[in-house]
Amino acid sequence: MDGLKLIKWSYSRRFNIKASFDSFPHSTVLFRRIKDYYFVYNVYWSTQDPIVVREDLVEMELLLNRELGSEKEYLNRGSR
Fold this sequence. Notes:
Helices cover 25% and strands 38% of the residues. It is of the alpha+beta class.
């Protein structure tokens, strides 16, 4: 999805991060840390939003890791 924007994020329980994105404003995305970067763990999807596809998840991961300063680690992860 072109132009996806990270609206807000916050730390959650057990060092997870909850985030919202402009194209999915009614859905909450939960990220977990693995090694030195974050990945999408779960999407609490709302039927008011479009369906989230794999390309969206990859862009969400990239945007959050960029925001947190771990973009390099995310891009250099072992298995893609």
